[in-house]
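Hey, I was hoping to borrow your eyes for a little while. I'm sending you its amino acid sequence along with the backbone structure tokens. Take your time with it, there's no hurry, and the full record follows here.
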Amino acid sequence: MSDAVQELYLDVVVNQVPTRRVVQVFADEDRRLYAWPSNLHALGIAVDDLPQDRYLGLDAVPGVDFRYDAARQQLHVDARVDRLDLQRRSIDTVGHRRWSADAQAGALLNYDLFAIHDRQGTVSAATALRVFGGTGIFESSGLSQLREQGDSEPYVRLDSNWTRYAPSGLWTLSVGDFVSGALPWTRATRLGGIQLRRDFSLQPGLITYPIPQFLGEAALPSTIELYVDGVRRYDGDVAPGPFELTAPPAVSGTGQARLVITDTLGRSQVLSFDFYNASRLLQRGLSDYSVELGQVRRSYGIDSFDYRDGVAGSASLRHGLRDWLTLEAHAEGEDGLAVAGAGALVGLGHWGTLHGAGAYSSGDGDGSLSHLGYNRTAGGFVVDYALQRTHGDYRDLAAVDGRAPPRRAERALVGLGASAGGQWSLSYVRLDRVEDGRSRSLGLSYSVSPLPRLSLFASLNRDLDDDRALGFFAGLSVSLGHRISVGAAAERRDGHERYSAYASRPVPTDGGGGWALRSERADTGNTHQIEAGYRADRVQWRGGLRRDGDRDSVFAGAGGAVVLMERSVFLARSVDDGFALVSTGGVADVPVLLENRQIGRTDAHGHYLLTGLNAWQPNRIAIDPLHLPPQIRFDHEQLSAVPAARAGTVARFGLERTRAALLVLHQADGSAVPLGSRVHHGETATAVVGYDGQVYLEELQAHNRVDVVRADGSVCTVRFDYADDLHDLPVIGPLRCDD
């Protein structure tokens, strides 16, 4: 360059996007612009094919237009997409949020009572005591049964355990009774001891399987839309340059995605992708595990404290080594028995997933296990196959006091459907047991909905080891609206025929009544039953009559919970997971809504125990302000409650009762106090007089004095008494304002 040049420092705009960067540029006497190559590269302009040891004339860079705006001291760059050397931007639509759960201290007792009277009377009860708080949850469940004749069981303990959750670490610690972790090729065992396991449910928004990534690039600021199987899953904005979009496909198996990129000039381009989503795979670097140590539980449901002597241990692990490869390992054992095995789940792209595993046992039983599985889902077509065999005298923990693993367990399924033509499936099952020998069956099923409210279904089952064992089942179901459905079915199995018909209206989840009628006719006897139920805020009732042949019976039941929280006792529906105690500050009969559905109303103390919440995630709870008394003031009408699993939280709405009234103020001559006059009540309360001398005041006392300041500065005083009225806003006056 010559000496007659001008050095400039310009703000840079690349493809209409401000970079917020300043670059050194030289302009010669002909107003040609020059820049050093490394400076252009820092702006995201690819210049690797140009000389790097000298200033480059900007008008000589191919595929790029430069424009100098002297008034704004800006350099505008318009580059083709192939000239952009920008870092790929990652657009993650999956990013989940971990919500902090609030677990208040309390206790509850779930109960389910059932009584039946036929030729003898029987009363049974299932109970579960739960104590919860910030340090964890203790729960103990059991069964009781009393009979008029025969042996009774006053109480049999089922499970007792203390559990602590760690949402940030995604692990759960249990001490007491539990079921060991298992893999598809191992068997779970009931133990009493200690268990540490991965718990993905602590972060409901976490996606554990590999997610497809869609790549694209934009030359100008653009809007992108992602469609998966014709349904839009994402839309947003993207800056110029390459980008990577990560979005959950919301489908299983094969799918097709279209990415529509529309720039600021209205030009669109469409990119198509094929993908396969396998939810059983783990994302790369993600692990799932379960480790247990304790004693094997025996006679579950029969004996409260029957544990096998000796200490047993079990461990299961799954790890995502790659997005397409998940490794598995398992070990278990006790005195005289050791089992170890490993496996792998391999993603085959659009061809599905392949699963293989092997294990070996030694000690009381020396043998091996082999497992092979395959699965592919493509639209409405499904292929699923699994074969597991044991060799030698293979044993595991469950076999010490129970049945040995099957010598051969094989299943195959081919399904076709998800269309107007209905759904077909063909299945084959084989089970070889040491105790029972070989069992093989072949099944064919079909279902279709030819009309919006009509469903037809049929199945055929053949026992391949018994030529005479042919089973058939067919039926229909019709929805009549208002939650009422009717149906009929016919069945033939093992040489016996059965015909049935029903009509039902299920009990609503949010509360209300329901009923069911059922009648069966068979060559072994006829059965007729009528049943009704009602789900209230504090209990769910059910009862009915049944006739089996010439034997009549009547039955009834009730289920619910007794909850202790906030130093109060509440009756509620059964509490299976998280729940919230809604508090309206003592205001009764306030409608309570869950996700915009009215569930119930607060009691006389302003409480409502709301069950059925989702643990570890926000649940939108609201009150209906339109049904509040006029003397009630509230801070908010909606909040999000995040309960821990099987525990409760408190949802407080800041309702306050205010002592308010509408005053009508007149002057000494009988005319209304002038519009805009200021009214002073108490030390700080100030209001303005409206039309016809009306003014609204709160925080009134039994005896009140207000001072009125008119526009001309003159002052008058009003004294009056106030009687509290919760349901109506009292209108007091006309009141004379004396000077």
